[in-house]
Task: structure prediction
Amino acid sequence: MSRPDWSPTRLTADSPTLPEVLRLIRDSFAYMEGRIDPPSSMHRLTDESLRQQAQDEEVWIIGNPPTAVMFLTAKPGRLYLSKLAVDQSRRGQGLARSLVDWAETRARATGHTVLELQTRIELVENHTVFARLGFVKTGETAHPGYNRTTSITMQKRLG
Result:
């Protein structure tokens, strides 16, 4: 059986889809409420900050309306993957894997040999998913004002 066409589409700052992306992220991250401390940075996302991300960096979606999204941000020596979200009704179908595969393609195209992400310490199921996708834990961080680990950093070295 062939895999559906899940080719990601890059959004521009004037994309009419950006409000739907914001809704997708908020809905997909809702399960974290009360589970992670401090609260998710997705609470600071606005239509304007999404436009800025699409203008200055990269926002990729699958589907119309979007059923999966990720942000990519170039950092020294690595491409940073964030806000990876998949609609709850579409989880387990390979959409996250498709986006991570595309992030690898983008990393290589932009001269990066490392993909990096951060995931909250409490979200152990995400650690497992990212490990299955080839990421390994490379560090721990604490949000400002916290004297304990709040996030782990994971990287995937690209061959």
